[in-house]
Amino acid sequence: MNHSVTSKEEILSVCRDIVRQEGIQGVNARRVAGQLGIALGSLYNYYPGKEALVMASVASVWQDILSLDGMQNLSFADTVDRIVHDLASGQKKYPNFFASHAMVFGTKADASAAMGRMEAGLQQMLKRALSQDPAVCKQIDPDGFVQLLMDLINGMVLRNHFNEKIVLDVVNAYAYGGKYGRKK
Fold first, then answer.
1. C-beta of residue 80 within 8 angstroms of C-beta of residue 168
2. Cα distances (angstroms) measured from residue 155 to each of 35, 69, 77, 98
């Protein structure tokens, strides 16, 4: 076995490939080290154990799925379009990830906190876009509507049955009074 040094990005790239093929359950330190051609001890220089490696893998997959860069100045409709498009593409790229990562980490406090922070950032972005979009119906409660939208998205994600059209139809009907014509 080659005992060469690698990088965190190389490690996470291998982990994402494993998740793509088998789901998050396929990620383990021996397998990752083997695919990288490094000693298991070298991998532990980056991640102290399996849980840390799997948590980093989950975060890396989510970063690959949801590209939030450049969304600061989009309308609410375009923000939602982009998020749901990324989620739909992510479901295809990582077929068993959505449901399986929730089962793996459902009771782990650190993982739940990390997912909570990511979800809070997403909610904040949606609320900002909603409040700044002049085309949105004025009677919409931003907090309530964004929570409803997140609940809808989370439910679909957890069931591994994400439906882009339904989310966009809800946004069109409630936030735009049926007047938002999508470019699809």
1. yes
2. 34, 25, 20, 10
**Which pTM was predicted?**
0.82
Sole residue written with tokens 């459902």: 106
- 116: tokens are 């909570």
- What is the pLDDT tens value at each position of the chain, 184 positions in all? 444 557 999 999 999 999 999 889 899 999 999 999 999 999 999 999 888 999 899 889 988 998 777 787 888 999 999 999 998 899 899 988 887 776 666 556 666 676 777 788 889 989 999 999 999 998 999 999 999 999 999 888 877 778 889 999 999 999 998 876 554 4
Torsion of CA 54, 60, 62, 64, to 10 degrees: -150
Rounded distance between C-alpha atoms, residue 33 and residue 17, angstroms: 13
Integer Cα distance of 44 and 69 in angstroms: 31
- Report the residue count for the chain: 184
User: Cα 174 to chain center, whole Å?
Assistant: 24
Phi/psi region, residue 128 (left: phi>0; alpha: psi -120 to 50; beta: rest), is: alpha
Cα 144 to Cα 30: distance, rounded to the nearest angstrom = 45
